[in-house]
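Forgive a beginner's question, but would it be possible to get a protein, spelled out as residues, together with the matching C-alpha cells, please?
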Amino acid sequence: MPSYKKGYFHMKGFVTPLGSKESLSSNIVGTKASNLASLILMAGKEIPLPPGFCITTNAYNTFLDEHGLFQRIAGILKGVDISNPHLVGTVTETIHDILKKAEIPAAIMEEVNSSFDSLQKLTGINELRVAVRSSAIGEDLSSASFAGQYE
C-alpha cells in the first residue's frame, strides 16, 4: 500500500497529508488524526497503512470566518443554560442547521479536491473510495472520549 510521499499533496494550510509533520499536531488535525499520523510514522513499512489526508482546523476556522459564524454562534450560545438538556438540544440543532447551510469556501474545496486527485494518482485507483472520519481537537483523549458525537 502506498504511503505518504513528500510533495504529493498541495499545502495551503487547509489540507495536510497523514504522516506529515503538520498531521502530528492535534491542534491542526485533531486528536484521532494525529494519533493515526503517529502510527503511520512509527509503523514505517512494517505495517501497510493506507495513505490519506486531513482537513485542518485552519480550513474550519476559515469556513466559520468567511460566513461570520464565530460571532453568530457565540451570540446563540450566550446565556444558554447547559443544565437544560432540551434547550441544549434545540441550540445544537440550530447551530447544526446554520453550519449545513453555509457553503464551503472555494479555496478550501479546491485544496480538498486537489488532495483527493493526488491521492487517486498515488494509489493508482481511478474510482477511489475513502473513509472519512471526524477528528476534533480534544476528542479521543485519554481522559475523555466523544465517540459518535459528530456527523
